Amino acid sequence: MQRLVRLLTLTLVIGCVVLFSGAVAQVENAGNMTNQTTGPQTAEGVPPEITQYAADWPLPNKDYENSRATTEASIDKGNVRDLSIAWTFNITANGTFGGASSNPIIMGETVFFQDLHANIYALNLADGSVKWEKVYNNTTVTGPNGPAVGWGKVFVAGDPFSIAALNVSSGEELWSTQLINTSAVAGEVIGEGIDIQPTVYDNFVYTSTVPGRGDVFYRGGAVGYLYALDQETGKIAWNFSTVDDPVSIWGNPDINSGGGAWYTPAVDTETGIVYWAIANPAPFAGTPEFPNGASRPGPNLYTNTMMALDHATGDMAWFTQVLPHDLFDHDLQIAPILTGANVSGKDQNVVLGAGKMGRVYAFNRDSGAILWIADVGRHENDQLAVLPPGNTTVYPGALGGVETPMAYANGTVYVPYVDLYTNWTPVSSLSIGVKNAPQAEIQPFTEGTGGLVAIEVDTGKILWDRKLDSINVGGATVVNDLVFTATFDGTIYAFDAMTGEQVWNFTAPAGINAWPAVANDTIIWPCGVGGTPQVIALRPGGMGNVTPTPTVNVTPTMTANVTPTPTVNVTPTPTMNVTPTPTMNVTPVAGANVTITSPEQGASIAAGNVTVTVDLTNFTLVEPAGQANAPGEGHLHYYLDAPIPTNASAPAIPRTGGYVVSTNTSYTWENVTPGAHNFSVQVVNNDHTPIIPLVYDTVNVTVSGNVTPTPTVNVTPTPTVNVTPTPAAAGNATVVNLTAENIAFDTDTITVPAGANVTVHFVNKDDGIPHNFAVYDSNLRSKSIFVGEIITGPAETNYTFMAPSEPGTYYFECDVHPSMNGDFIVQ
Length: 827
Prior knowledge:
The protein has 827 residues and is mainly β. The protein is 2% helix and 38% strand. Strands 11, 12, 15, 16, 17 and 20 form a 6-stranded mixed β-sheet that branches. Strands 42, 44, 45, 46, 48 and 49 form a 6-stranded mixed β-sheet that branches. Strands 1-34-35-36-37 form a 5-stranded mixed β-sheet, with no helix packed on it. The longest helix is centred in the N-terminal third of the chain and has 12 residues, at 2-13.
């Protein structure tokens, strides 16, 4: 959330003073609520304080799983209306971004809190009196920040560059380790900073840097690193670059930057694996010299990635990138949550992630395979791989999506979200620190709204969705049978965790962009934006007054027996780089099953032609493909080195790799080259959309031997006939006819004379689906030759442009659906 405040403030309200007035069980009986965790907080390596105070709030998100859920507190639906202020503690920090953006820690009778001047306070839980304080008074801190406690020490970022250890009893500084070199070259600005609340495990302190601090963010050359520090000495045990090549930074270190972690990682105390959510690349969206992120071609690893590292060595166990080559600052930044789930009939350990792209992901914790994806909030134009000329409104914007931590309890994940748009152009930027780039237009945050959504973890189904009148940046927190959240205008809400019905609300003394800690009968909530910035303690029978619960603007409650809202993204997938879109109109099919019988998983096979044979049950293959949907019938999509498509509202066409439509239980891939390959098959409806829950199988094989290489990327028989249009030349003018239908072009090759004046007569036959035609130097899209306006079908238009004067093979695609592509040959 601090990033949200940062960008809003810097772009919209610098110099302005904003004044503001002023989570979960699936059963009624709070005693029956259970959380699935990785193991007890008494595991080897857990600091003694965390074991001793496990019933309180000893870690930034309550526990190592980051569940943000407690059953040990006494607050529930029976007494929540009695909550009022028991005490307050004034927040004196008053920087550009308010006074607080962190989670307090509660251990016994002590509350540990850090403000946005990096000052740390030990407060008495009973009355808020100060036990000790350590004043850093650093006005360049941006946050989020906050303390971690263990082994008799409190660990904090005392400034944007260093981590310090304080004596837990007195606040005396014991050591401080500088992670960022502050001896900048003359004339250069330091581009990295620490903006994370650390955590502690097995004698390590875990923290991260990001490409920014103060008013300088995403300056060229800035790279985020993950760190493990020795808790006793502060010595760096290991670090890990979240950019795969931190020297060249995807080929342009003068402009590019990215990575790092903004939120506390999760720790599996049984396996010793730490799960990190990695942030976005920059510049975003681009610059005048390098539009559409052209300065950083390729996927920009490891940005927008869920990453599993060995806690002791920093060695990578796996990574899964969910959004390659991000243009819109759509981080996967939210604190991961560890739990268990039964996905498609199989019990699995999972890790949940989310971010500003407005999506929640369930990953298999052991392999990184994506199990399902769920969209939250509003989505519009957020799937564009390339921005067309002019302004494009994108939801969620750079300040939208999931901005603050989720919570998990009893099979449900609760997700706060923000609906706020950004108007982008290919050359506009919000990468503060990128020179000479025009700023993108952000919707005024006072016009933004938000919500809180409940998602079933076994399936990814939306159980309920509550809309809020202000942006939701107060996280989600489960207390017995309630889920709490708060909005930027200073309103705290309590909802029935099972139904989503609003039970209570409260007007805080200031706006809120922080999240609470809960222990016994007390909720500690920092309220640091405008108004009267305070840490407030809410307790039944406190001295304050409760604002009556409103009876208006409440979304009707869905009861337990109502079919959940059909925005389900139930998506097992063993592959990476999946970019799903909002789902709707799902045609459920029960009982279908498909298994690849040949080749077998892990097999070594000869190069050349490879036949994939499958066993299909409880499903009928029908001819011709493309009829109206009917339960229990459809066809198969075979894939080669491609991610399993997950969008239930669009044809199952992968963005990369090969695919073919078939009504046969076998398919032969020709000229498969030596190396590692993935073969998969998916059961789809008659209209090519995936059936839900997904039904698919996949095998990984090693192909050996010699064969004339044929690229496996886009070497895909498609549902349509590939016809090379015959250019109609008239002097130096060339006319090409091109049609888009069923999310496919009618050709994969266009040939034109060098330097010709080309007119493309483009017909979009896909009803309600946007397409365009664009030409680039290659499939990396480093340089655009022509980008046509997007039209929504059924429609047609003429695109006119000059063909390159240099003969060669170029690349064309639909920017909205990059799987529609081909060779643009200049002769």
